[in-house]
Amino acid sequence: MIAFDTDVLTEILLGDTRFMARAAAIPTYDQSVPIIVIEEIMRGRLNIIRQAEAGKTSITLPQAYEFFAATFADFRRLQVLSYDEQAESHYQKWRQSGIRLSTHDLRIGAICVSHSAKLISRNRRDFARIPGLDAEFWE
Q1: String of DSSP letters for 79-96
Q2: How far apart are CA 12 and CA 80, in angstroms?
Q3: I need a labelling partner for 79 at 20 to 30 A (CA). Which of 33, 103, 114, 119 fits?
Q4: Phi, psi at 79, each rounded to 5°
Q5: 114 half-sphere exposure, CB direction, 13 A CA radius
């Protein structure tokens, strides 16, 4: 199973042809996304809605909601990997061992280890530090 990190999935959702072509080579049934990635991307989409409401972006409010809805639909096509008790156990163990990464990155890594999923990311610097994480780094 392949799990997309936020940085890669964002490029795919925005239509970057390099990332889309690489993702297309992965069978759809093998594509997944950690729930933390969904949280990060949806927070961004909600922020765009708030900015549009306040007139602080060039995107109109209807466009912002359209973008939100399209992202939601895109997520429905992917298998969602949960943050379960095993992932929490990995996360706590790594925190106690002194691994210092952002909370979200460490939780994404824990989800992937828990579900035996290979993480596809651009963030080699951080994810290469997580013990037992199978990761592939796209440039």
Answers
A1: EEEP--HHHHHHHHHHHH
A2: 16
A3: 103
A4: -75, 135
A5: 22
* pLDDT value at 37 more than 90: yes
Q: Supply 77's token pair.
A: 């096509």
Residue 104 Cα distances to 29, 59, 111, angstroms:
25, 28, 10
Segment 74-113, tens digit of pLDDT: 998 889 999 999 999 999 999 999 998 999 999 999 999 9
In the chain, the number of structural domains is: 1
Residue with tokens 């651009």: 122
**Residue 60 corresponds to which amino acid?**
T
CA-wise closest residue to 68 among 48, 39, 52: 48
The predicted model scores a pTM of 0.92
Q: What is the CATH number of the domain that holds 15?
A: 3.40.50.1010
The parent domain of residue 102 ranges over 2-137
